[in-house]
Structure formats: structure tokens, C-alpha cells
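User: quick one, sequence for these C-alpha cells?
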């Protein structure tokens, strides 16, 4: 998928516009020089217009946790494969994403980070998320337990240096030796510290949050379960106003009721839907490699070969949006916040909202809430 024709100056009309506050049933969005300049309801301003035929206009999706798609993973050092993976998700309306890497030995991971850094600077992806290797072996999921290690300062520094400012988030299990110091190190380097793949008690989670951890990596999954006498990481993270919770809204990792309960408790400002997608997203069933482990995808569900452990997803953000609305009971405004606005806010980006001043990253959805047209920075996108 590529942009074509350059930025357009146009007003999208006759749409159901999902703003940060409400839905404009007969709305319009004006785009000039790659930015949104006005949003309104009723008669559109003078100038070129495009009638979206009653489609639903939402901000471009922002995925802060994605490992690949279109048959390729972000672990590849081939820039064309990385572009292909990002393009696969762009077809589904994801205009901004972080490239997530799974656990590997630190030197190997540093090489992957270094290769991706150039594509961040090129704008193919918005940054890098390291999901490991600083994880708990007891809750490793689809990460090779033999590779996992504590977050020593030198290891964290090596990975940050390899990224040259492009590493935006690192997931850490807070019970590991040195975890709290590592969280402070990340915060000092303007990197989001996320808590995940953890067997921690609530008491072990609190110091990491106090030190500056602000994201829960795919809440519920890869964590000690919630118990009424030991809330563990789920209770601690969900109930802390300082923490934004990731939810994999594929209806496989989480039951719709769990999504609804978590999203409504966390609220608009602390809920972000993610895909945790692997290379199989947008391709189909088959056998894939995820961090050196064999993963089998059957009926769209990836699991480790020879076991039942989930290994990422085949989800796309448009599907997460539909699931949130159709199955989990979220409103259009809530779903737009969770799939666009909150992720952009976490990354400090000028996108994720249909309001004047924001980048013109826009998705037009059809009656079934499937992407019909995608705009990136004011340019229409084609395959």
C-alpha cells in the first residue's frame, strides 16, 4: 500500500464523524496541507468536497503493540519486509504503529533495534517496543524462557543506544532484580516503562509504578491471575490511575465481558486496544516463527507448537474497533479513544483525534465498520 497524488485539500462530507466528545451524525472534516483544519456538522464549508456516503469517519488507528503482519515480522533486518508488514496493517486503517520485538539475547536484539531505527526515522513505523527479554520465566508465554534475563543497567543501555532515540517502550516484569532501577532508567530516557509477563504480587508491582511505569502490557495475559485475596498485577495495574492498560480485543485473549469491565473501570484516559499481531495477521493459517519458537495458526488463533499457549494474534485494529463496539459494548467514542486517541497521547504524537490541528490520519468505515478509505497525513492510501 502506498500514498498517491500527494496531500489533498478537501472536506469529507456526509459522514458520521467520531470526535473525542461525541458523534456528529451529519458531519464533515476539512483537511488542508496534511492537517485537519475544521470539523463540523451540517452544511460543509466552501471548497472541494468528497462525499463519504454516510460512512463512519474515525481517526487513523494507533497500535502500540504489534509484531508484524502480511507474512512478515518486525524482527526482520530486511527493510522491505518491515515495510510490507507495516503496509499490511495500514490497509486495515492503522496509520501509526510501534514495531514490537520479542525476547532474544541482548546483542541480537540490539542488532534488530539498530536495523529498525532507520525505518523509524524514515517514518515506516513510529518507534520500537521491546517486549522482553526482561520478563518472568513463570509467565513467559511465547517467549523463549532460556533467553530471559534481569534488566541490568548495561543491557538496558545497550538496547537504548542501539535505537538512538527510537525505542519508545520496554516491557519489564517488576519482580526481577533491578527492575525498579530499570524503570527509572527508562523514564530518565523518555521511554515508556510497561509492566507485563509477570508473576508479581501486588506489593511487587507498586514500587515499579511509583518509579514511573505507566503501561500494562496486554492486561490479564501473561500475568498472575486476579485473586480476591491477592490482586496481583492485574488488580494493581487496573486500579492505579497512573497506568494505561493494553487490551487485546480479538475475543480470544479476552472475553468481551473482561474487555468491557476493564475498559469501563480504566475509562477513556487509561484504555488502549492493541493487536499483539504476528506475521500471520492478514495472511492466514500456517506455521510461523516467533522469536525462534514454532507457532501454529489454526482458525486464526496462534499457539505454540505442541501446546495451548497463545502466541500473539492475527488481529488488525479495525477488527479490534468492531469487536469493541459490536461485542464488548463500547460506544463509538470509547472505541475511537481506545484504538486511536490514547495510543497517540502515550507516544506524544499529533494524531489520534478528529479535531483541528491534528495530523490528517483518517479512516472511513463502511456500514459494517470495515475500512473503505484510509488517509495518512492528508494523502489517500492505495494498495
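Assistant:
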Amino acid at each position: 500500500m502506498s500514498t498517491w497524488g500527494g496531500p489533498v485539500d478537501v472536506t469529507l462530507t456526509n459522514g458520521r464523524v467520531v470526535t473525542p466528545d461525541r458523534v456528529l451524525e451529519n458531519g464533515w472534516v476539512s483537511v488542508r496541507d496534511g492537517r485537519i483544519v475544521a470539523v463540523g456538522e451540517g452544511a460543509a464549508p466552501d471548497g472541494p468536497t468528497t462525499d463519504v456516503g454516510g460512512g463512519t469517519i474515525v481517526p487513523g488507528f494507533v497500535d502500540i503493540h504489534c509484531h508484524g503482519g502480511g507474512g512478515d515480522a518486525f524482527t526482520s533486518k530486511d527493510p522491505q519486509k518491515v515495510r510490507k508488514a507495516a503496509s499490511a496493517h495500514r490497509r486495515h486503517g492503522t496509520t501509526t504503529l510501534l514495531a514490537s520485538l520479542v525476547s532474544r539475547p541482548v546483542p541480537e536484539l540490539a542488532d534488530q533495534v539498530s536495523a529498525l531505527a532507520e525505518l523509524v526515522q524514515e517514518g515506516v513505523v513510529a518507534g520500537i517496543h521491546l517486549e522482553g527479554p526482561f520478563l518472568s520465566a513463570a509467565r513467559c508465554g511465547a517467549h523463549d524462557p532460556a533467553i530471559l534475563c534481569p534488566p541490568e543497567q548495561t543491557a538496558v543501555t545497550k538496547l537504548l543506544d542501539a535505537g538512538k532515540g527510537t525505542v519508545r517502550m520496554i516491557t519489564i516484569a517488576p519482580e526481577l532484580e533491578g527492575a525498579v532501577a530499570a524503570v527509572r532508567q527508562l523514564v530518565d530516557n523518555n521511554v515508556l516503562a510497561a509492566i507485563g509477563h509477570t508473576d508479581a504480587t501486588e506489593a511487587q508491582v507498586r514500587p515499579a509504578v511509583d518509579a514511573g511505569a505507566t503501561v500494562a502490557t496486554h492486561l490479564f495475559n501473561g500475568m498472575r491471575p486476579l485473586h480476591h485475596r491477592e490482586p496481583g498485577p492485574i488488580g494493581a495495574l487496573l486500579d492505579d490511575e497512573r497506568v494505561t492498560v493494553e487490551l487485546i480485543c480479538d475475543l480470544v485473549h479476552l472475553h468481551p465481558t473482561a474487555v468491557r469491565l476493564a475498559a469501563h473501570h480504566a475509562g477513556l484516559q487509561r484504555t488502549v486496544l492493541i493487536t499483539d499481531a504476528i506475521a500471520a495477521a492478514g495472511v492466514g493459517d500456517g506455521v510461523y516463527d516467533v522469536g525462534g519458537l514454532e507457532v501454529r495458526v489454526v482458525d486464526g488463533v496462534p499457539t505454540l507448537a505442541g501446546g495451548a499457549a497463545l502466541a500473539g494474534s492475527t488481529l488488525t485494529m479495525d477488527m479490534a474497533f468492531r469487536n469493541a463496539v459490536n461485542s464488548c459494548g463500547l460506544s463509538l467514542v470509547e472505541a475511537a479513544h481506545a484504538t486511536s486517541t490514547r495510543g497517540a497521547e502515550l507516544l506524544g504524537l499529533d494524531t489520534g483525534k478528529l479535531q483541528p490541528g491534528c495530523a490528517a490520519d483518517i479512516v472511513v468505515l463502511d456500514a459494517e465498520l470495515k475500512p473503505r478509505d484510509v488517509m495518512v497525513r492528508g494523502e489517500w492510501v492505495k494498495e
